[in-house]
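Record 1 of the preview.
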Amino acid sequence: MALFPQEALNDGVRKREVFGWAMYDFANSGYTTVVLTAVFNTYFVGVAAQGADWATLAWTLVIAASSLIVMLTIPALGAYADMHARKKALLAMTTAACVAATVALASVGRGDLWIAVIAMVISNVCYSYGESLTAAFLPELARPHSMGRVSGWGWSFGYFGGMLSLGLSLGYVLWAQARGLPATEFVPVTMLITASVYGGASLATFALLRERAAPSPARDSADPVGTAMQRLFATARRARELRDFSWLLACGACYQAGISVVIALAAVYAEQVLGFKQAQTMMLVFLVNIAAAVGAFAFGYWQDAIGHKRALAITLAGWIVMTVLAVLAQGPALFWLAAVIAGLCMGSSQSAGRAMAGLFAPAAQRAEFYGLWTFATRLSAIVGPVTYGLVTWWTSGNHRLAILSTAIFFVLGLALLMPVNMQRGIDTAKASG
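->
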């Protein structure tokens, strides 16, 4: 059996187009890996905020602020993209803005808190827009029965992009540290490396990916944004009628809250609790990316075989195990094991959620429904990290209790997944299409 079968794709879709689509995951993964997970979060806490007692909470509030902006705007952006068939054009604009804001992060030095805040908010908002827009292409490319594996192709390939950005950054950091250079010298260079990989790799997406959607009859409206908002409210009402999509939104909001904590704060936890140095943290995240690439790729095939719901439930159980191990870790060994489990579950659970959202979304409103999915995941990116930040603040820096609180999100996600009926959700989406 072919590893990348043509029959997994819709009629008229060529493999090189799927490669172009997957290249966007490859391009933007460096942003999450280097900026959010491995490097800039600890730099923000220790350098931009100068290690203040409120520094971790400040970082989580920056992530929350950017997520709130996305929550309030992404559904309308999705509605506009559907109405005008402009997913690709909007993706190009948001990509350019994210790359530019990441370059701006390179100018942050000691005490430059507001420069860091503004550049982080802009870059994270635009990154999130790109995530939603590129996800909306998935149902156009993959057949319904192959949604899981094609989604897995993108997620797994994306982690190699994260490893490229992180690997180049790690090489430079080791070189700089060997020469006694401080973080204020080498961290800005890692931001430039990340921006270069993001911008360069995304060019393949814009060269190969087609915009297949057709504009809706409302495209000539004198008030396109107002019309998009009207469609958004109608979509939200319809989403409530699609009970399985609604359950999935609630489930996704919960488990993505836990994942947001891991992405935004794992490096902070490693350095504050276990004494990891910058290079150790980057190597840890590199290992997580390897595990995530393997997990997302293999999981996509397994997901199609055993069912999306069951597969997602297994990964959520894995997340619960991971948080317990992280709390119990007194040294690097157990924490590295927890990191590997996190990697295996990370791409798998996110890929599963993206595929299920595609199956439950009516064909004519995919970008809008993916906008609602992004709304839910951005809500999680507020609740998860801010909860962690508040726990550390209230407990005078007890990161172990904060990471333990994260397990609650995965338990809730698992509970909210139980009412989801896959076949009913698919049939309802077809009937509403």
